[in-house]
């Protein structure tokens, strides 16, 4: 018998294929959903437990995140209060005409009547020298010094409101008032409004840039913290992968850890900002009231607080995702 025949005799025949292979039982969607929920709940609370197991080290990380997130929030509140304080000036449309000292009350009434007859003028308000002196006495606090004056040095003032259809950039009325021989000085409030709008727009851009930079710093801090946690649990992750754990299962606890870092950092930032607000609100309000202002400072609202907490938690999740994606891209952590 040849060698080829011996091989054919010794080689066992392949098993005959059955006509119908048994199908894998299909798991109902309710059970799959329950398993998915249990896995997320386990990762959610186990990640919080790991953070609580190292309270001092994680507290320092949370404090760093809190200060990093508190700075843009304080800049935003400062800018928002300044914008509300300047809201009246931004809406100003009046032209203030200071008349010459030689123009008496009759001359001021005559000029006011001429302006009211124009079609591009909505209203004209006359402020007499007596009204101006009384207002200056009330706002300046130099009442006793003003009593020494023998005469009123203030001129009559006309506050002219242009019509709704008037071009606010360069109204013709402005040039005519400047050319009038009875007018000494003309102040156009819309010009101040444009300057103030430009300053506030610049401040808004600065706040956005600072917030973006500190948000990036927060993301990097959380990503580095999660990366160190992954390196400390290299052996555990290797065992989990050997018994068939997927990358999603391995990644999930670290994502929730980043979520907790961001959430606690946002709460810490709110606590810092509220403490600063309570420390400065009283003195700042007294300064505003000393200048005759009726503006009330406002702090962190409910919507702003929720937005800060949500944004910080999202930054934590993103930082953890970036860190785990690098270490688990090849199917095992890299050290």
From TrEMBL:
<dbReference type="InterPro" id="IPR004513">
    <property type="entry name" value="FtsX"/>
</dbReference>
<dbReference type="Pfam" id="PF18075">
    <property type="entry name" value="FtsX_ECD"/>
</dbReference>
<dbReference type="InterPro" id="IPR040690">
    <property type="entry name" value="FtsX_ECD"/>
</dbReference>
<comment type="function">
    <text>Part of the ABC transporter FtsEX involved in cellular division.</text>
</comment>
<comment type="subunit">
    <text>Forms a membrane-associated complex with FtsE.</text>
</comment>
<keyword id="KW-0131">Cell cycle</keyword>
<feature type="region of interest" description="Disordered">
    <location>
        <begin position="1"/>
        <end position="26"/>
    </location>
</feature>
<protein>
    <recommendedName>
        <fullName>Cell division protein FtsX</fullName>
    </recommendedName>
</protein>
<feature type="domain" description="ABC3 transporter permease C-terminal">
    <location>
        <begin position="209"/>
        <end position="324"/>
    </location>
</feature>
<keyword id="KW-0472">Membrane</keyword>
<feature type="transmembrane region" description="Helical">
    <location>
        <begin position="259"/>
        <end position="283"/>
    </location>
</feature>
<feature type="transmembrane region" description="Helical">
    <location>
        <begin position="295"/>
        <end position="318"/>
    </location>
</feature>
<feature type="domain" description="FtsX extracellular">
    <location>
        <begin position="94"/>
        <end position="169"/>
    </location>
</feature>
<keyword id="KW-0132">Cell division</keyword>
<keyword id="KW-0997">Cell inner membrane</keyword>
<dbReference type="InterPro" id="IPR003838">
    <property type="entry name" value="ABC3_permease_C"/>
</dbReference>
<feature type="transmembrane region" description="Helical">
    <location>
        <begin position="56"/>
        <end position="79"/>
    </location>
</feature>
<keyword id="KW-1003">Cell membrane</keyword>
<dbReference type="Pfam" id="PF02687">
    <property type="entry name" value="FtsX"/>
</dbReference>
<feature type="transmembrane region" description="Helical">
    <location>
        <begin position="202"/>
        <end position="222"/>
    </location>
</feature>
<keyword id="KW-1133">Transmembrane helix</keyword>
<comment type="similarity">
    <text>Belongs to the ABC-4 integral membrane protein family. FtsX subfamily.</text>
</comment>
<dbReference type="InterPro" id="IPR047590">
    <property type="entry name" value="FtsX_proteobact-type"/>
</dbReference>
<keyword id="KW-0812">Transmembrane</keyword>
């Amino acid at each position: 018998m040849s060698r080829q025949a011996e091989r054919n005799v010794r080689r066992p025949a392949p098993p005959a294929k059955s006509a119908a292979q048994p199908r894998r039982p299909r798991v109902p969607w309710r059970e799959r959903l329950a398993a998915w929920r249990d896995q997320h709940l386990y990762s959610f609370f186990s990640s919080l437990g790991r953070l609580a197991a190292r309270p001092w080290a994680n507290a320092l990380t949370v404090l760093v995140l809190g200060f990093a997130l508190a700075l843009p929030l304080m800049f935003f509140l400062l800018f928002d209060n300044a914008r509300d304080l300047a809201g009246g000036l931004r809406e100003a449309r009046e032209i203030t005409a200071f008349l010459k000292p030689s123009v008496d009350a009759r001359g001021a009434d005559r000029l006011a009547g001429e302006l009211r007859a124009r079609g591009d003028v909505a209203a004209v308000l006359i402020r007499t020298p007596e009204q101006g002196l009384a207002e200056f006495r009330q706002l300046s606090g130099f009442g006793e010094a003003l009593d020494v004056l023998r005469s009123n040095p203030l001129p009559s003032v006309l506050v002219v409101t242009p019509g709704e259809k008037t071009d606010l950039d360069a109204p013709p009325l402005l040039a005519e008032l400047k050319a009038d021989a009875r007018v000494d000085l003309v102040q156009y409030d819309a010009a101040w409004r444009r300057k103030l709008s430009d300053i506030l727009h610049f401040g808004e851009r600065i706040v956005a840039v600072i917030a973006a930079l500190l948000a990036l710093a927060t993301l990097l801090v959380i990503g580095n913290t999660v990366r160190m946690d992954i390196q400390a649990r290299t052996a555990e992750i290797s065992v989990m992968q050997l018994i068939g754990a997927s990358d999603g299962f391995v990644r999930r606890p670290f994502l929730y850890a980043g979520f907790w870092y961001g959430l606690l950092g946002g709460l810490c930032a709110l606590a810092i900002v509220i403490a600063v607000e309570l420390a400065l609100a009283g003195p700042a309000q007294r300064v505003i009231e000393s200048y005759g202002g009726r503006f009330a400072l406002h702090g962190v609202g409910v919507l702003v607080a929720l937005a800060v907490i949500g944004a910080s938690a999202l930054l934590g999740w993103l930082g953890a995702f970036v860190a785990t994606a690098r270490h688990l891209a090849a199917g095992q952590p890299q050290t």
